[in-house]
Fold:
Amino acid sequence: MEIKIKRDVLNRELALIQGVIERKTTIPVLSHLLVETLGEQSIRIWGTDLDVTIRCDIEADVIKPGSVCLQARRLSDIVRNLDAEDLHFKKDKNEWVQLKAARSNFRLAGIDREKFPELPKMPKQSSAFDAESLEYMITHTAFAITNEQSRFTLSGAKFMLDGKTARMVTTDGHRLAFIEKEMPEESGITLDTLVPKKALLEVAKIARDQGGILKIAKDDKHIYFEGETRFLATRQLSGQFPNYEMVMPKQNEHKAVFDLNSMRSAVRLISLMSDPRNQSMRLTFRNGECELNAKSSEEGEGTQIVPVDFAGAETLLGFNWRYLYEFLNLAGVDTEIKVDEEQEKKDAGLRVAFQFTDTNTATLSSIDGDTGYDYRYIVMPLRV
Structure:
């Protein structure tokens, strides 16, 4: 095998594949990438941890066809730190590979391609899904997935396609994120599966970078996502996802509507005084305002007033401030998860609604206005 490839192009794809490569594994080949040529003008790179597999197709000048497995982390580190524009790879005897780049030369140990795990194939029957919509749905729900490995059925998102509706639900047992979107065309497949968080975050990256349309398919054990030049296959999680519909409040007596930027800034500021042991924050709603309060017996106390459209009996709500802030942090974000000055300018004028009954019932949060999605976020109360 012998190829020439642009350094920036290879570096971008290696950075994506690193997301599925395990740093520590008892199976040496899983720390490697499979590189194989495709015709005369492209190569294909695979990475897998046996649960999630990613494939990237890249433009390259193929001088001699072939394949090799290279250590993923080392190759990525070398390519990232090179300042050369063009890279030249040439496979020698016994799976060794020569890498030349301007005045730099490397000799890398490889592994026989036959030792690499069996590669998944995209099923023939699939559904077309708008990449931007899929990324939006993942971005606005993935943050609520539990990080506790023991809670297996909560460590992913419940993803459903049913006729013209796409739905995604996540929960960690303390909060729940729900999003639904009507599809412009009826989907080719029906789907009701649990997608692991690790795979979900990688799918969001693929959707953001590829754009356009992604194909989604499934079989008995896997779910597949395919873009123009990238492909991801993941095992479906097994187990029974909680009955999320029972958790979602059906009726709420009160509704408070407020400016997103104002509330987000207030929560961020007052959280500095929250007790680190329970991270609690009190929100007191009264006519025209919401008072935020957090205190620590050792550090002190902080209070701020935020204007709110609310008329009703004074109501006190308690939250883990992180659960509240993570929703506010994402409410106005179209795709990428970030809140900076540019995002805050974009969010100017955007309003968010809280719906609740009393101190002891769950609060339903949503974006006030039409976004094209039915997006709801439910948080269980803290005792205050």
